[in-house]
Amino acid sequence: MKVLIINDYPNIVGGAERFLENLLHEAEPSAVDFHRLDIDDLAKEIMPISKSSFFRNRYRRISIFSELVQLITQRIENLSPDLIHLNNNNLYTNSVLRSLQQIHIPVVSFIHDEYAMRRITSPFYFRISQSFTFLTHSVDIYHQLDKLHYKAYLVKVPFNPARWEHTHTDDCRNVKTDLLFVGRIEKAKGIFKLIKAVELVKAKIPSVKVAILGDGPEMNAMKQLVKAKKLTDNVDIRGMQHDQVVLEYYHHTKILVFPSAMESLGYVGLEAQSCGTPVVAFENKGSNRWCMDNHSGFMVKKRSAQKLAHKVLEIIHDDVILTRISTTARENIRLEGYNASKHRITDIYKAVLSW
Predict the structure, then answer these.
(1) Which class would CATH give 162-334?
(2) Hey, how many other C-beta atoms are within 10 angstroms of the C-beta on 89?
(3) Topology of domain 2-159+339-354, per CATH?
(4) What is the mean pLDDT of residues 300-310?
(5) Are 344 and 143 in contact (CB under 8 A)?
(6) Domain residue ranges of the chain, discontinuous segments joined by +
(7) How far apart (Å, rounded) are the C-alpha atoms in residues 297 and 291?
(8) Distance between CA atoms of 177 and 280, rounded to whole angstroms?
(9) Cα–Cα distance, 100 to 98 (Å, whole number)
């Protein structure tokens, strides 16, 4: 089976890209012949590179670029896949959809989050996508797809915990960092609430150390806030890091902080728990899947800096409870407690091709 994955952002490591990495690993035994078409890279062949902005990205989403449509169509025809998998298409959406109108190949589209759900309800997408099969690992999104009468499947989360495991001590004394944040630097990920919470924690623990791994559109604003709060000695901003560096941080930090306002899953939480790193998370539909309060993690129900700081101060020196949570979280990962389905994506591929 030859599957072409059409993806917008090959260079932005987020949940959709993490999903793809894990899918390719999970599919190895199934002998699926995967190929990738990264639309952002393809667009650079015919369009001048310009700095991203809200209005430029909006223009790219709603416009149909005929030359790009032609290139996409040619690539698909040359490869002649059995199936097309749309993974993270929200930048050149209409150009991709127009190219698929011209080619009669089965299409599955993975819906990762609420933002993607909003896009597929647009008139153009709705008209094109009636023949698509939609996949998601979110129960809530699956129900939304079902109400729209789309052909949809709830599937298991592709995740490889072994990638993040190595020898780890259960003794919390051998850590290098107190708190860790991994993710995009933007307001929706809760980074500014985290910085404000650190200020409150510092008032009680002046030596608290925080590491921030990631990059994003609000990096400069975050740095300015760190400076304004006089936290430059406490907050280590490392930028985007390779997975091996992220792995070492997971294994040498006391607590991962996951302050996102909205998530459908949150791979960062799964990765940290695979390492035995306790997680403090803001309550949302994603974190609820793997962070059960005082069992496999610590949940902050009201998404405020004050509540986050209070929770951190409550547990940061309690090695007994941190070790217990670490053990339970690892067991939850082993049992795949975050999954709402047992259907593998590659099995759905086979089902689609058999219709």
Answers:
(1) alpha beta
(2) 24
(3) Rossmann fold (3.40.50)
(4) 95
(5) no
(6) 2-159+339-354, 162-334
(7) 5
(8) 15
(9) 5
Q: Let me know the angle formed at the C-alpha of 7 by 272 and 143, rounded to the nearest 5 degrees.
A: 70
Stronger pLDDT, 11 or 250, i.e. the higher one: 250
Domains 2-159+339-354 and 162-334 share a fold: yes
The pTM is what? 0.90
pLDDT digits (tens, 9 = 90+) for 5-46: 998 755 555 788 889 899 999 998 888 999 999 888 888 877
